[in-house]
Amino acid sequence: MKVNDVATYEVEGAVAVVTLNSPPVNALSAAVRQGIAGGLKMALEDDAVRAMLLICEGRTFFAGADITEFGKPPVEPVLRDVQLMLENATKPVIAAIHGTALGGGLEIALTAHYRIAVPSAKCGLPEVNLGLLPGAGGTQRLPRIVGIAKALDLITSGKPVSAKAAKKMGLVDELATEGNLRADALTFANRVIDENRPLLKVRDRTDKLSEARGKPDIFADFRKAHARKFRGYKAPESIIRCIEATLEKPFDEGLAFEATLFRELQAGSQSAAQRHIFFAERQAAKIDGIPADTPILPIRKVGVIGAGTMGGGIAMSFANAGIPVTLVDSSEDALFRGLRVIRGNYEATARKGRMKAEDVDARMGILTGSVSMEDLSDCDLIIEAVFELMEIKKEVFAKLDGIAKPDAILATNTSYLDIDEIGSATSRPASVIGLHFFSPAHIMKLLEIVRGKNTRADIIATSMKLAKTLGKVGVLVGNAYGFVGNRILAARDAQANRLILEGATPEAVDKVLYDFGFPMGHFQMRDLAGLDVGWNREKSSSSTVREILNEMGRHGQKTVGGFYDYDENRNRTPSPVAQKVIEDFAAKQGIAHREIGEAEIRDRILYAMVNEGAKLLDEGIASRASDIDVVWVTGYGWPQYEGGPMFWADLQGLPQVLEKLKSLQDEYSDAFAPSPLIERLVSEGKGFRDA
Ligand code: T1G
Question: pLDDT digits over 81-136, tens only?
Fold first, then answer.
């Protein structure tokens, strides 16, 4: 019988089964909470019932609180009240888990007396990814089951654990047979009845906490070990403080302490930013103007041309997803070097315990090498990752045109160049698309999907689906120089290079960006990537500081230096050599040297990036402001807790952004002339979120 629109109640023998069904992920919305509470009430009032099963239909057990309800007035019953009802039930409650029991979903399961899960299920408390902490007792209950050390790791990483691991740590009591959860859970429930098992409350468990009482350094050591990873984020420290509270406070006081810190985080800008990115990544996968039922083409075999750093990383991305891939390079030496690097990467991963040693051969087994493009004639997708020069790319595509099968997708990994011009080298421009991977391609999540003016809709839809298959975040962008990410990087580059000519040092510019939350500064990033990327030795004419450094053999970290000097362990120090090049070049340009403060550095760089983002939106190269945020958070290290350049600008207030740009334009250069889009939005009282 129906409890409400999303919950049903039925009795099987002596077991009440309360089933929730609220697509897409059974998030704990008001209706779901009412359904659980209503079902439990019915079970408690039904004398024939001696135990209750809480189970979900659809893809998963509760995947967490309903994030879309955040910021709205709470609707009864709130999650904690539902949990208290479950925890204080006078009849055993068994949570039956499949899919992903995450956040509030796992916290609900922790207030049941027992938990059973199918082997494919995962359990986790990922709130930290949203700038939050588990706000329904997770920081107080999990440590009581798995111990302090595991709880610290699980909750601050947000990573889920498999049902098997959960069973091992006592988080789950029983494993069901895959695909047989309901029946096995009923059997388990009847066993609980027949054996008259106690009403176990996690809150009453103290054994795991006593283990930690003798180790006061556990928290200090954990903070120290993770300082770099948590730098700038508020949620991890709040989580650690809540877990510390399990040793210092009685359960209910710990719960109250957790609630206080949760509310602080939820009200803060960091969580707003991280929730924005969560939804923005999912929004980016929805392509306006392309019907959701557009056919997805099969990608059974992939070819990658170019066995260099990018080609090798791209090939690994496919091998990691279990898709057979052939890596082609015209030079046998380059090919074998590329394959050796790939194997070396896998062996290093295996040494770190992040993959089994025996999987290295399996992974390499679906990754073959060849010196002939003819071997790609049966590939569904071929990705070119050769030197970033238009004529070379057009040559490759012209050749590919004669080799690839008619329905193959022809993709270029170019990071700046014109997709349409590359496609014009073929007889099938509609089959050409840009798949811009970011280095290292097998690790970086961002995939810029660049549509040419002729690119077919099904190829665009297939590429977007492919991003998800590869575990990446796909963002569809328009075909303009540098697309979205590198176009904004170019704006940052222009200001950074101008600032060092006017008197800021590379390390001063880098410190501002590092303090803002980037993993590294601009010049440190340039040295890491290599100053000679895209540098043409023959045509180099000392026309920029970067060219001069390259001409001196200073190509960055891989050589003695670039903007910085490096020791044999690649530790960087400010470079007097580079500084002299900068000052001599500035003098030749007649640029006066002056003291430049951190505020000016920060304003000029960040507002130049925001302005470029507005231009991309206005030109239609970016479809949404949130797409730009996804690109810069996932591809360039914009700190997630600042939400991306456009979210950050909205947080400053667009009127203030416009004023700032105008004053920067007056004071420094027309490069800051505000994008007309910003002026329009401000005149309409809107923000980028409304663009
Ligand atoms: N609330 C609302 N909607 C959600 C949601 C949630 N928690 N999780 C996913 N969705 C939507 C998502 O926006 C998308 O919508 C659709 O579901 C499919 O998601 C008190 C406070 C569960 C692993 O952080 O990790 O509990 O775009 O594309 O790749 O302590 O979604 O289709 O309209 O991601 O198969 C904690 C977040 C919340 C889990 C499925 N929970 N979700 O991945 O599908 S805070 C989480 C995920 C909390 C408590 C605290 C993933 C997934 P649309 P999807 P997927």
Answer: 999 999 999 999 999 999 999 999 999 999 999 999 999 999 999 999 999 999 99
Which ligand 1 atom is at minimum distance from the Cα of 70? Answer: 21
Per-residue model confidence as pLDDT tens digits over 423-458 = 999 999 999 999 999 989 999 999 999 999 999 999
| Annotated domain spans of the chain | 2-266, 302-480, 505-588
> Of 181-185, 287-291, 399-403, which gets the smallest average pLDDT?
287-291
Instruction: Determine whether 127 is an active site residue.
Output: yes
Q: Which fold has domain 2-266?
A: 2-enoyl-CoA Hydratase; Chain A, domain 1 (3.90.226)
Write down the catalytic residue from 127, 244, 448, 612. Answer: 127
- How far apart (Å, rounded) are the C-alpha atoms in residues 484 and 505? 28
Q: Residue 634 in contact with residue 473, Cβ under 8 Å?
A: yes
Q: What pairs with residue 368 in β-bridges?
A: 326
* CATH C-level class of 302-480: alpha beta
- CB 27 near ligand 1, within 6 Å: yes
Q: How far is the CA of 40 from the centre of ligand 1 (A)?
A: 25
- Residue 533: the pLDDT is 84
Q: Phi and psi dihedrals of 173, rounded to 5?
A: -90, -25
**Considering the chain, what percentage of its residues have pLDDT values greater than 70?**
100
300 pLDDT band, cuts 50/70/90, is very high
DSSP annotation of 330 = S
Ordered DSSP codes for 218-271: HHHHHHHHHHHHHTT-SHHHHHHHHHHHHHHS-HHHHHHHHHHHHHHHHHSHHH
Q: Is 130 in the pocket of ligand 1 (CB under 6 A)?
A: yes
Cα 202 to middle of ligand 1, angstroms: 26
Ligand 1 centre and the CA of 70: distance in Å? 13
Q: Is the CB of 24 under 6 A from ligand 1?
A: yes
DSSP-assigned beta bridge partners for residue 415: none
> Is the per-residue pLDDT at 211 higher than 90?
no
Tell me the best of 56, 67, 266 to mutate to test the pocket of ligand 1, counting ligand atoms within 8 Å of each CB and taking the most. Answer: 67
Task: State which fold the 505-588 domain adopts.
Answer: N-(1-d-carboxylethyl)-l-norvaline Dehydrogenase; domain 2 (1.10.1040)
Active site residue 551: no
CA dihedral sign of residues 658, 660, 663, 665: negative
Mean pLDDT of 592-597: 95
